[in-house]
Specification:
The structure holds three protein chains of three kinds.
Chain A: H1 3-19, H2 21-61, E1 79-83, E2 86-88, E3 91-100, E4 119-122, H3 124-131, H4 136-141, E5 145-149, E6 161-166, E7 179-182, H5 197-221, H6 226-238, H7 243-278, H8 295-316, E8 320-323, E9 326-329, H9 339-352, H10 367-394, H11 401-412, H12 414-440, H13 442-445, E10 446-448, E11 458-462, H14 468-477, E12 481-493, E13 502-507, H15 510-516, E14 517-518, E15 527-531, H16 541-544, E16 550-553, E17 566-569, E18 575-579, E19 591-594, E20 608-615, H17 622-633, E21 638-641, E22 645-647, H18 649-683, H19 685-693, H20 698-734, H21 743-771
Chain B: H1 3-11, E1 16-17, H2 18-28, H3 37-49, E2 53-59, E3 66-71, H4 73-84, H5 94-106, H6 111-135, H7 138-163, H8 165-172
Antiparallel strand pairs in B: 1-3, 2-3
Chain C: E1 9-18, E2 21-31, E3 36-40, H1 47-54, E4 62-67, E5 70-71, H2 77-87, E6 88-91, H3 103-113, H4 118-131, H5 147-159, E7 165-169, H6 177-193, E8 197-201, H7 205-208, E9 213-218, E10 221-224, H8 225-228
Parallel strand pairs in C: 3-8, 3-9, 6-7, 7-8
Antiparallel strand pairs in C: 1-2, 1-4, 4-5, 9-10
Classes of the chains: A alpha+beta, B mainly alpha, C alpha/beta.
Chain lengths: 780, 174, 229
């Protein structure tokens, strides 16, 4: 067989794909859209690593943390910068106050001119928010005039809320920790983030889990309209082509669809890239320019997808004999065998097994074995599913007419049904496994803040020197605040420099102090020493609290900046108090408790203000109201919202990635399900009309469409739960984490799968009802 | 087929001489068998005797004298009755049916009616044959089938003619 | 006008347009119990539309259809569907058997749509299949039987509910003459034995010959040949 003949046959197939009249076109475009969506998702996936690294680079480039131990002297190229990071509602708000100290002060990335005092430059997203009605609350906190926007290279995402505002007098606050003097932006030693083997495992599995359904989807897409194609091939046999030629022609058709699909995919990707710029999912947004797939991976996609399309087509034709007068399935299709279908998932398990118990300590996992094992397990689902569907469907008993119609159809073509849901099943199995893995390692990656949040839910920290009493009054006046416990806190050492012993000093009124310790009695002017506080373990309070002993507030340490070290003498008549859990648990207090009447004025500037707030969560935006008040008291005031647990950001990102990906994949599969459902309905137009003629209720036929999708999906979900739980268990064992099934995760993933079925069924109802109109009976 | 009715029908469009009648008949219906003038003469005499035509005038020219015939009211009624009566379904009916259809078109009658009536008559025969066939033995069935197929052929011709009436009207009235 | 006395199903002055095409333009119809009426006419004349209107599948734009004393156009879609399930039977040229169901399940389908339990429905279906000489096909699917056999299965299905009116639209259109005749014989015999009326749309004279009388539809108008002659 000459190469030329091959090429001619392939080209004939390509021609057929595009010149087969309206039907041919529809088929080619459907295939192309399917392949295109898959390609777009592949390209997007290959672009994600680079997008994340660009984000990381941008973040590093605008870093303003110096880690310098010595304070930098003021010069004409220095800048004092204050970090004002905050939240607005659920969103992070990145804020900086800038005070250039000379003409050569460094500009932050994306900003071309320093904002003057009373001015600020903001990110486009923040600008839009501030100008909208929903941003009015935030506008109160950021009243400065907007004089410009931050360019893309100064931001890590299109939806990031960020601003730089002009400030003065920051230099005096430098010691505060949130305020620094810098002469350049950028992390001086931008390093790769250390990759945790467990995190790496998670990322690997996420990628496999997302890409597998895409592969299944592409495989399904190139089979769109296969029956019609078979008929055309039969016609070709009738005019004299042999069976090998027809196969090559079929391959040519698939190739045409796949290549067109590549073009579509590139277009979809470009569109998706732009859309990605305007979307923010789970607090992560990116700029379109971040999403550049590496050329090598893109090339791989461009070659692999058409090749895969051709292979799938030939594989699908393997059991088919195309005769001149029609297409014959080779004999009665052999009963699906179980054994080789079981081999795949078992082999997958075998690959993962050796790594069980590796945990975090034993270091790395073999990436190839992990990937291979997971892939085999998931492919195993797609191989098992047709067998399960066939065996179960063959045993389904009697029911109503709708049920009977659906079951009989499934019995006759269970393979098609199984293929339809394979994608969903793979996605769900993978997602369930990941959910389990996440939930399982939750303990490690979720720090318990151990907070008892029943007495206070927010804390406002005021910079040194801000008088506490008026500030507390302002918080009390804030809407939604139920109680304010205001303290001034500081640290006492036994020497002015390099103290050996030291303890905490807390100033507050009697009511507030009672919240943090058990006082025998209290009147203004009392001073207490707290004994037995966990905080002071190792300190001998009775020595420190000896009346007449001289202590120093805010002592200086070797290597640190010189502090004020204001002396304070332990007064006569000091009382003792017992520690009790603080307002937020884990902060039980030791040291000295002083009522305002007993506080010498000299000590005031050495103390920081802390106000613990009990807020009414039912008041809308109460947290932002408090933040507004705090910002009004002092721009450097910081607020903390206490929650019972908080997750590390890194873990959040992976979880987020999974959800975004799973949502995309399920949407994609839903679309393909809909397409094949519609095609099937179109092909039975006449039958549907006939059924309506003899009085079949619309409900009956609609229900049968629902059953026909729901039965295989239900089976698919059950199987994917089994596989997902197995895979999850294995992965947990690999990380040496106790196995615990995250049922909410399982349910939510199966719920998403079920929702897709429902949406597909609902979307196919209008065409179904239209096809059921009597006009379908007209033959003339 | 009835030459008398045909000639009568031709007279409906206006009085004609005997030779005119022969020429008109030959042109419209006598494609393969032109009329002998004697046939025209004897037929017209019979029609005259029955009062279906009258002599409208005699022309004395250079040759033999020529009678001009005109149709009477009785004559018109006779044509109408003939056209409306379906032919007994039998083989080789086309020429009569064709004549009837063309005459109906020429005299601006509803030719489709003629075809429908004829079809109904044919179907009646076919029903009888079908019924006999269902009750009879194999020999009966075969014989009946033969007749049925012939009748069906006629009916197909009827259908085809019905579908082409507009064209036929154009052709014959030109 | 009132429907002719004793008629089971009758229609007056039916008009139905599909877009700019006038399918029916003043058509009339009437049929008695036990009567077989052929609806003839050239293709595109409105035969099928007339059948669809009579069966309550299509609602005419104007005109009245009376079945058993009830006005069809006054009924809701659900009521007409119910009527089709209980009182009417249908045979079409092709595309009417559900390919996934076995033959006996196909025949039992109308009974099951009426709520008859599966076992009982299939038992009744089988007696009808015996009458139409296709009971040996009960386990086969429509794809595995010949056209003539399939059409007999379809006839069995149309009769299984003991309909008062059987609508047949070119029932032999896809069959050769021998199979066509056999189907017609079985169909008319079965209908006569249950005193069902048959509305038979056909363009074939030898099929129409199985009728008691014929109605000709031309350009959307109907002609009842019996009333004219």
């Amino acid at each position: 067989m000459s190469v030329r003949q091959w090429a001619a046959d392939l080209m004939l197939g390509v021609r057929f794909a595009f010149t087969g009249g309206r039907e041919g076109w529809t088929r080619a475009v459907l295939t192309a859209v399917g392949v295109g969506l898959g390609v777009a998702l592949l390209l997007l996936t290959t672009a994600i690593p680079s997008a994340l690294s660009v984000r990381h680079e941008r973040e590093a480039a605008r870093s303003d943390i110096t880690f310098a131990s010595d304070p930098m002297p003021k010069a004409n190229d220095t800048l004092v910068i204050a970090r004002l990071d905050d939240y607005f509602r659920e969103d992070d708000l990145r804020g900086r106050a800038l005070e250039p100290e000379g003409p050569r002060a460094p500009l932050p990335p994306g900003v071309d001119k320093f904002p003057a005092v009373g001015e600020m430059v903001v990110s486009p997203a923040l600008k839009e928010l501030l100008e909208s009605d929903s941003g009015a609350l935030l506008r109160e906190r950021l009243p400065d005039r907007i004089v410009g926007t931050i360019a893309e290279d100064g931001l890590i995402g299109s939806a990031e809320l960020a601003y730089y505002r002009g400030a003065e007098g920051l230099a005096e606050q430098i010691s505060q920790g949130r305020v620094e003097r810098i002469d350049r932006f950028g992390d001086p030693e931008p390093g790769e983030e250390d990759s945790d083997p467990v995190l790496l495992l998670l990322v690997l599995v996420v990628f496999v889990v997302l890409l597998m359904p895409v592969a299944v989807f592409i495989a399904a897409a190139v089979r769109f309209g296969g029956e019609r194609r078979d008929r055309r091939l039969a016609a070709l046999r009738l005019v004299g082509s042999d069976s090998r030629m027809t196969r090559r022609i079929a391959a040519g058709e698939a190739l045409a669809g796949a290549v067109l699909g590549l073009v579509f995919g590139a277009a979809f990707f470009m569109v998706g890239r732009q859309l990605a710029g305007s979307a923010e999912v789970f607090r992560i947004s990116v700029f379109p320019s971040y999403l550049n797939p590496s050329p090598l991976l893109a090339l791989l996609v461009a070659v692999a997808v058409p090749a895969a399309a051709v292979l799938v087509t030939l594989f699908a034709l393997r059991g088919v004999v195309i005769e001149p007068l029609g297409v014959v399935r080779a004999g009665r299709p052999a009963r699906r065998r179980l054994w080789w279908r079981l081999i795949l998932p078992l082999a997958g398990l075998a690959m993962l097994y050796p790594m069980i118990g590796n945990g975090r300590e034993n270091g790395d996992f073999n990436q190839y074995l992990v990937t291979g094992g997971v892939v085999l397990l998931l492919v195993g689902v797609t191989a098992l599913l047709p067998w399960v569907v066939e065996s179960v469907v063959a045993r389904l008993g009697s029911g109503g007419v709708a049920w009977q119609l659906a079951v009989r159809r499934l019995q006759l073509s269970s393979g098609t049904a199984a293929r339809m849901v394979n994608g969903i099943a793979v996605a769900v199995a993978g997602a369930i496994a990941l959910q389990m893995l996440f939930a399982g390692v939750d303990d490690d990656y979720t720090k318990s803040t151990g907070q008892d949040v029943s007495r206070a839910q927010m804390e406002a920290q005021l910079p040194s020197g801000v008088p506490m009493a008026p500030a507390a009054e302002k918080f009390r006046d804030t809407r939604g605040v139920r109680a304010v416990y205001a303290f001034s806190e500081g640290y006492l050492g036994d020497r002015a420099r390099d103290p050996e012993h030291g303890t905490m000093i807390t100033v507050g009124d009697c009511a507030s102090l009672r919240e943090v310790s058990e006082l025998p009695s209290c009147t203004d002017g009392d001073v207490f020493a707290v004994h037995g506080a966990e905080w002071d373990t190792g300190e001998d309070m009775s020595k420190l609290a000896a009346p007449g002993r001289k202590l120093y507030s805010d002592p200086t340490y070797e290597g640190g900046p010189t502090k004020q070290a204001v002396p304070w003498t332990v007064p006569q008549g000091i009382k003792t108090a017992k520690a009790r859990p603080g307002l937020v648990a884990g902060t039980d207090r030791g040291g000295f408790l002083i009522t305002p009447g007993a506080l010498p004025d000299t000590l005031g500037p050495t103390l920081d203000g802390h106000a613990y707030l009990k807020v009414d969560e039912s008041v809308a935006d109460v947290q932002d109201l408090v933040r507004n008040t705090a910002a009004a008291i002092d721009p450097l005031a910081d607020t903390v919202t206490w929650a019972e647990t908080e997750r590390t950001d890194r873990f959040d990102a992976i979880r987020t990635g999974l959800f975004v990906g799973a949502a995309c994949v399920l949407a994609l599969i839903g679309a393909s399900l809909l397409v094949s459902q519609l095609e099937q309905l179109r092909e039975r137009k006449k039958l549907l009309s006939a059924l309506v003629a003899f009085g079949t209720r619309r409900r009956t036929l609609s229900l049968s469409v629902l059953w026909q999708t729901a039965i295989p999906i239900l089976l698919g979900l059950l199987l994917s739960m089994a596989v997902g739980l197995t895979l999850g268990t294995v992965l947990l064992k690999m990380t040496s984490t106790p196995v615990r099934v995250d049922w909410t995760g399982v349910l939510s993933m199966t719920g998403i799968g079920a929702a897709v079925v429902l949406v597909v069924t609902l979307c196919s109802l209008p065409p179904l009802l239209r096809l059921m109109r009597p006009e379908g009976l007209r033959t003339e | 087929m009835s030459i008398g009715h045909t000639l009568l029908g031709l007279l409906e469009s206006g009085p004609r001489h005997g030779y005119d009648l022969k020429r008109a008949f030959d042109e419209k219906f006598g494609h393969d068998r032109p009329l002998h003038y004697g046939q025209v003469y004897s037929t017209m005499s019979r029609l005259l005797k029955n009062g279906l035509v009258v002599v409208d005038g005699i022309e004395a020219g250079g040759g033999p004298e020529r009678k001009r015939y005109a149709i009477t009211d009785e004559g018109i009624t006779d044509v109408q009755r003939w056209l409306a009566t379906p032919e007994k379904p039998e083989p080789y009916l086309q020429s009569t049916l064709y004549t009837k259809v063309v005459l109906a078109l020429l005299t601006h009658r509803d030719a489709a009616d003629i075809l429908d009536t004829q079809r109904s008559e044919h179907l009646r025969s076919m029903r009888i044959l079908t019924d006999r066939k269902r009750k009879g033995d194999l020999a009966d069935q075969l014989i009946c089938d033969h007749a049925l197929f012939h009748l069906e052929a006629d009916l197909r011709w009827l259908e085809l003619t019905a579908a082409r009436l507009d064209k036929l009207r154009e052709a014959v009235t030109r | 006008m009132t429907p002719p006395a004793g008629s089971l199903l009758s229609a007056e002055a039916l008009r139905k347009a599909y877009g700019p095409t006038l399918a029916l333009d003043g058509a009339e119809f009437s049929i008695h119990p036990g009567e077989v009426v052929a609806v003839m006419g050239p293709s595109g004349s409105g035969k099928s539309t007339l059948l669809h209107c009579l069966a309550g599948i299509v609602t005419p734009d104007s005109g009245t259809i009376t079945y058993n004393g009830r006005e069809l156009s006054a009924m809701s879609d659900a009521q007409r569907s119910a009527l089709r399930r209980s009182d009417f039977g249908f045979v079409f040229q092709f595309g009417q058997l559900v390919p996934e169901l076995t033959c006996v399940e196909n025949v039992a389908l109308p009974l099951r749509l009426n709520g008859t339990p599966r076992k009982e429905a299939e038992r009744t279906a089988l007696t009808w299949m015996e009458r139409l000489e296709v009971d040996d096909l009960r386990k086969k699917r429509p794809g595995e039987v010949s056209g003539g056999q399939g059409q007999r299965v379809a006839v069995a299905r149309s009769l299984v509910t003991n309909p008062r009116v059987l609508f047949a639209d070119e029932p032999t259109g896809a069959l050769d003459s021998l199979n066509g005749e056999r189907v017609m014989e079985l169909l008319t015999d079965a209908a006569r034995s249950t005193n069902a009326a048959v509305v038979l749309v056909t363009h074939e004279a030898r099929v129409a010959a199985y009728s008691d009388r014929e109605i000709v539809v031309r350009d959307g108008k109907s002609r009842d040949m019996e009333r004219i002659v």
